[in-house]
UniProtKB/TrEMBL annotation:
It comes from Jannaschia seohaensis. GO terms for molecular function: 2-oxoglutarate-dependent dioxygenase activity; iron ion binding. It comes from the Bacteria. This is Phytanoyl-CoA dioxygenase (PhyH). Keywords: Dioxygenase, Oxidoreductase. Pfam families: PhyH. InterPro entries: Phytyl_CoA_dOase-like.
């Protein structure tokens, strides 16, 4: 649970680094789950197993295979087909339902907590190996506010982003950066560029602060704090998850994707949640594409 001082800092600045939250046993289970996925992918490409998840992923990545969406824990913002891949397994579910993470969320949104579906795997390869047309979640993350990537129906939802570090995140390998609050923070304009992004004229670069965190630590983000992530200038991979928790009963901002209560428990079984995602995929594949945000390129702010 957060201290009163930490809660005050979070609301005053809009961001908070909290170390040593997710134990190694939980992270190891997630890595084992992903190792099985990437082993199957690598063997299908004739690449073979390279000893661990990230090194095998490196081989798949360097071979030019599209590995991101099959590993992500949500459906994409682009057109969803009946066979669009995603991953939701027991170790990922246990991470989302981890009591230490829920304790942090409860300190921000209260005791009735729902897992919000705006969530992602983030794996950032060395930037020099990333193609220009690579998925946006594998490259530099543009400046944005999390409130802005949801539908307007959720503008009053009590929500917190919990950014979970699976590997150490440093300024060198692409940690988060944020522009902490300086008084009340309004919703800034966003433009649908390569990513949904705040135009540079609305930011104050001198106020940007890096938010390094060790593996097992988390960064808590207020939905209105402008933030981004640096590029990876190392030869290793930076790995994290974006998880979001909200007050139960309020709009999620992405109603065509599934949400589920996690506290008070018990949370649904992971198989039930995976079926919810499969049902959402099937439903989305049968209707016109549903945009995941409200912004249009014809706005004067995007000129």
């Amino acid at each position: 649970m957060l201290s009163a001082t930490q809660i005050e800092e979070f609301h005053r600045r809009g961001c908070l680094v909290v170390e040593d939250i997710v134990p190694a046993v939980v992270r190891d289970a997630v890595e084992s789950e992903y190792a099985a996925l990437i082993r199957e992918m690598a063997e299908g490409l004739g690449l073979g197993w390279r000893g661990n998840f990230l090194e095998t992923l490196r081989a798949v990545h360097l071979a030019g295979h599209d590995w991101f969406q099959p590993l992500d824990i949500t459906l994409p913002g682009s057109r969803i087909e009946a066979d669009t891949p995603f991953h939701y397994g027991p170790a990922v579910h246990d991470l989302i339902c981890n009591e230490a993470l829920l304790d942090l969320a409860e300190a921000i949104v209260g005791p009735r907590i729902t897992s919000n579906p705006i969530q992602h795997l983030r794996i950032k390869p060395p930037s020099e190996t990333v193609a220009a047309d690579a998925p946006v979640h594998t490259t530099v993350t543009a400046w944005h506010q999390d409130r802005a990537v949801a539908h307007a129906e959720a503008d009053a939802t009590d929500i917190v982003t919990v950014w979970v570090a699976m590997t150490d995140a440093t300024p060198e390998n692409g940690c988060l950066i944020a522009q902490p609050f300086d008084g009340p923070q309004a919703m800034l304009p966003h433009c649908p560029l390569d990513q949904t992004a705040i135009p540079s004229g609305y930011l104050t670069p001198a106020r940007a602060e890096p938010l390094p965190v060790r593996a097992g630590g988390v960064v808590l983000l207020h939905p209105m704090v402008p933030h981004a992530a640096l590029d990876n200038r190392t030869d290793g991979f930076r790995w994290s998850f974006d998880l979001r928790y909200q007050h139960t009963g309020q709009p999620t901002g992405r109603a065509h994707f599934p949400s589920f209560p996690v506290r008070p428990g018990p949370a649904p079984d992971w198989r039930a949640v995976r079926e919810m995602w499969l049902d959402a995929r099937a439903a989305c594949a049968q209707v016109p594409h549903i945009p995941i945000h409200r912004w249009t390129s014809d706005s004067p702010n995007c000129a």
